[in-house]
Amino acid sequence: MNTPPLQGKRALVTGASRGIGRAVALRLAAAGADVAVLARGTDALDAVAREIKALGRLAVPVTCDVTDPDRLAAAFAESVEGLGGLDTVVNNAGGFYHSGPFLQLTQGDWERTRGLNLDPTVQLLRLAGTELAANGGGSVLNVTSIAGLGGAPRLSLYAVCKAAMVSLTKTLAVEWAAQGIRVNAIAPGWIDTKLTSGFTGHPQVKEALQHEVPQNRWAEPEDVADAAVFLSGDGARLVTGAVLVLDGGLTSQLSAVARGLLGLGRAAA
């Protein structure tokens, strides 16, 4: 019988009550890890914990608003104590409050966006880096977005935070390599979660966005979760500083140019 790839590992996942975080937490547990799950909603968090326990793994649910620095620090300590240590951290909590033209967004919009997407990530990286270094190493995974890899009109504040996460991922991968800590990121494209319900709730909008994706599909949270299992395991022991893009080929094309070339190809045929 094959040993699960994360057998005996201890993982912490933020934003774990729904969407990507929930899928990641369950996949890590299915791969053999004990998991501490952090989120604001206690009821939803307890439901995820029950699913983890049903997989035969230890679950440590910790109610936490990551935008509260004091609560995040306490939640991290509770998680490490409940797990009996730490091997893997998944920075997943995030989202966007406001979108629109940059000049219409306010300083308050920036502070709220940064306070959810970037500040908690920086704080948790400090906490996790100290813990993992003391334990001889481990894995950190930051869930960013393709919005942080290029221009993202009307999502400028969110994109800035995600771009900062990409930069921080690469920087810490170098700084922490000698301590046995690997730091990687996953950058999803269009993914069907509550965060994107404003788009998926309009069939024509969803179809138009999907049409731009070469694979002609939206990603699912489980696509991110499968990648998280790989990057957290020993099979990725030489992978650090990587940004794994999960977008069905969207960012690999120059969309306007690509469409023109495809049109020329069809005409020539």
TrEMBL record:
Keywords associated with the record: Oxidoreductase
Domain of life, source organism: Bacteria
InterPro entries cross-referenced by the UniProt entry: NAD(P)-bd_dom_sf, Sc_DH/Rdtase_CS, SDR_fam
One Pfam family it belongs to: adh_short_C2
SUPFAM superfamilies referenced in this protein's UniProt entry, alphabetically: NAD(P)-binding Rossmann-fold domains
UniProt GO MF annotations: oxidoreductase activity, acting on the CH-OH group of donors, NAD or NADP as acceptor
Family: Belongs to the short-chain dehydrogenases/reductases (SDR) family.
Name assigned to this protein: NAD(P)-dependent dehydrogenase (Short-subunit alcohol dehydrogenase family)
